[in-house]
Amino acid sequence: MPNQPVGRVTIHDVAKAAGVSTSTVSLVLNGKLDRMRPDTSERVLKAVADLGYSTNEMARALKTGYVPTIGLVVPTVANPFWGEFARCVEHAAEAKNYQVLLCNAEGNPEREQRYVESMLARGIRGVILGSSPLSLRHMAGVTRRGLQVVAFDRLTLNDAGLELDSVRVDNALGAKLAIEHLLALGHRRIAFVSGPISSANRRDRLEGYRATLRAAGIVPDARLEWTENVNPSDDEEIVTEIGRAAAVALLKLPEPPTAFFAINDMTAVGIYAGCRELGLGIPREISVVGFDDIHLCQIVNPPLTTVRQPLEALMKSAVDLLIGRMEEKSRSAPEHLTLTPELVVRESTAQSRPR
Fold first, then answer.
1. How crowded is residue 283: how many other Cβ atoms within 10 Å of its Cβ?
2. Which of 135, 142, 138, 137 is nearest to 119 (CA)?
3. 71 bridge partner residues
4. CATH architecture for the domain at 11-63
């Protein structure tokens, strides 16, 4: 086999410097990190950068630390909200001449970590994290190695050692707007419907729901708070079934609710199905409020009253903030942007009527 040209760095050189096999180097360069220890991939990436190994544009990106691409991690685009979310990110990124790499992590921190490790290995230096987990500690390793992260729908102040930017809507205020609207219509038994409180935005909406009831002199009734899955395997893809099951169960209580506040619009659509199953009309007998204001809200029957998130403004801010971090050399203090939600009243809410 002929000798390599003088000065050319080979994959064998990288493997030797990192103390791993050439196959391991290949796996790292291709982002296949599922079964690899983080310290192993870190050694390979360091060797790539130190030696200046470059075989193609992707590997050169590992050397320079730059590709015009941002990562986007969401729970699942099976929920139309996340599809609209991704569209807004892509539009904002295109205006900055960036592309977007989309990953569905199913709200699983380990899966999120694998995705961002893979992105970092491919030269992507910025990620918008859309899952709103209760803790962002699983991002600590990649941020120490230079990945910029903007967290959506949560503050990052409670994660010790992490300095991450964040953009969000005021979820507690959104819940307050929804509950005050229902209270003004005479509803006093208002149910809260969600899956498990496994994200910061769900926690904040639940706290806003409870606080608003208390402010009105109503003690929150734990029996009217549905915060569980239909079965242990349920996830974001079937939130409509959670809404349906919750409505059927809660409306069979001795003192059923007269109104529902759903954690998101797709859960509200499930509540519609549960009410139909029991022969109850919306809003004639039951009022329903959602959260997000996806396009579906305008075409369901009746059109859904909901809390609107200003997605275009949120995602433009997130993209601008992220690209600014990726392109600047110095690092200022983290920024935390909170925008105001808006109640959009449609035809799914009406004056309370005794049942």
1. 20
2. 142
3. 101, 127
4. Orthogonal Bundle (1.10)
Name which CATH class applies to 171-309: alpha beta
Q: What single DSSP character describes residue 341?
A: P
Is it the case that residue 232 has pLDDT exceeding 60? no
Distance CA 58, CA 326 (A): 17
Strand locations in the chain (E):
69-74, 99-104, 126-129, 148-152, 165-169, 190-194, 225-227, 259-262, 287-292, 305-308, 336-339, 342-344
pTM equals: 0.77
Q: What is the CA radius of gyration of the chain?
A: 24
- CA dihedral sign of residues 96, 101, 106, 112: negative
Confidence of residue 355 (pLDDT cuts 50, 70, 90): low
Q: Are 65 and 125 in contact (CB under 8 A)?
A: yes
Q: Evaluate whether 44 touches 28 at the Cβ level (below 8 Å).
A: yes
pLDDT at 57 (0 to 100): 44
Q: Does the pLDDT of residue 233 top 70, yes or no?
A: no
Q: Where in the sequence of the chain do the CATH 3.40.50.2300 domains occur? A: 68-169+311-339, 171-309
pLDDT tens digit sequence for 60-75: 454 444 568 899 998 8
Distance CA 165, CA 325 (A): 9
Alpha carbons 22 and 151: distance in angstroms, whole number: 35
What does the alpha-carbon distance between residue 274 and residue 253 come to, in Å, rounded to a whole number? Answer: 14
Q: How far apart are CA 58 and CA 287, in angstroms?
A: 53
E strands, 175-267, where?
A: 190-194, 225-227, 259-262
Q: What does the pLDDT average to over 47-66?
A: 59
The mean-pLDDT minimum among 51-55, 97-101, 260-264, 332-336 falls in 51-55
| Cα distance between residue 336 and residue 225, in whole Å | 30
Looking at the chain, the domain(s) classified CATH 1.10.260.40 span 11-63
User: Domain 68-169+311-339 classified CATH 3.30.70.980?
Assistant: no
The mean-pLDDT minimum among 67-81, 153-167, 243-257, 306-320 falls in 153-167
